[in-house]
Design goal:
This protein has 308 residues and is α+β, with helices and mostly antiparallel strands. Helix content is 17%, strand content 33%. It is elongated. The relative contact order is 0.12.
Length: 308
């Protein structure tokens, strides 16, 4: 997904120019576009909305019934590019009136703790949305461990948060991670099912007793391996705290850098876990959204090293 830092998608001289329109009277987006684009069919216009090519006052809008006010500016992009804004510790991959999707760096907290209030994804995004309107807010949908990098979704209103959380473990949501683990697995793929519970020092433990925790289901498959390490694709059906980390320890192949859950090595000097793919239904439009990031290069570099 090619994106530009702030504003509308960039274009080269060879590309068609963006179309800029001004709303003359209060109406709805679909009605306005049909009237202003007589050469395009209703399906053509739906495609523009679906592909995030319609901007209302510099914000992507995909809802056909989005209300418009007189004086607002509508921009129609010639490309399917999406917004990307880079910050020091995360990148905004996608933003509209209801959600923000980011790619978080390892080491950044999702939300505040007793010892850290400001240096969190939540706090930084809250500051970001308030730049355009001091009443804007950010809402937590799910979390990533501090040392886990990758995709996170935040809501921009209570309704979006509620709808996303209600469906976060449903059939419409798919979450895929990559994990760099110690050792070479005997089986190329498998599933781990156990019941997780957290102790007084905040460490999660696995049990096969249904009465001793919440059910957690993790699927894995080997992407690539060396004699000392394996790179796995990991998909989770449930979203329990530390689930993948605990299940990898239970499998006998702890995630590198995860001393808390049995790791004895730290070849990349961080936790070897990255939230790489995410697919979910937009909470307002119902559109299926899919995001994918690159596997961190350091994960692959470890596999290419010679190990004694």
């Amino acid at each position: 997904m090619q994106k530009k830092s702030g504003g509308r998608p960039s274009q080269t001289p060879a590309q068609k120019k963006d179309m800029l329109l001004v709303v003359k009277e209060n109406t709805f987006l679909m009605e306005f576009l049909i009237a202003q684009l007589p050469t395009k069919s209703r399906n053509n216009i739906k495609s523009l909305l679906k592909n995030k090519q319609v901007w209302v006052d510099d914000k992507v809008v995909s809802q056909f019934d989005h209300p418009l006010l007189s004086g607002q500016k509508i921009s129609i992009s010639a490309s399917r590019s999406r917004v990307e804004k880079k910050f020091t510790e995360f990148t905004i991959l996608y933003e509209d009136e209801a959600i923000i999707v980011i790619d978080k760096s390892a080491g950044l907290l999702s939300v505040a703790t007793k010892n850290e209030k400001r240096r969190t994804a939540y706090s930084m995004l809250s500051d970001y949305v308030k730049r355009s309107d001091s009443s804007n807010k950010i809402f937590i949908v799910h979390r990533l461990d501090r040392e886990t990098s990758g995709l996170m979704v935040f809501a921009k209103n209570e309704e979006a948060k509620k709808l996303l959380q209600e469906n976060w473990n449903g059939a419409g949501t798919q979450k895929s991670y990559v994990a760099l683990v110690e050792g070479k697995l005997e089986k190329p793929e498998g599933t781990i099912v156990s019941y997780l519970t957290e102790d007084k020092v905040f460490k999660v433990h696995a049990s096969q007793n249904p009465k001793k925790g919440l059910k957690a289901v993790t699927h894995y498959s080997v992407i690539e391996a060396s004699s000392a390490f394996s790179l796995l694709e990991v998909k989770i059906e449930t979203g329990r705290k530390n689930q993948i980390r605990v299940h990898m320890e239970e499998l006998g192949h702890s995630i590198v850098g995860d001393k808390k859950y049995g790791a004895t090595s730290s070849p990349i000097r961080r936790l070897g876990l990255h939230a790489q793919k995410l697919e979910f239904l937009h909470p307002l439009s119902g559109e299926k959204l899919r995001f994918e990031t690159k596997i961190p290069p350091a994960f692959y570099s470890v596999l290419k090293r010679k190990h004694r």
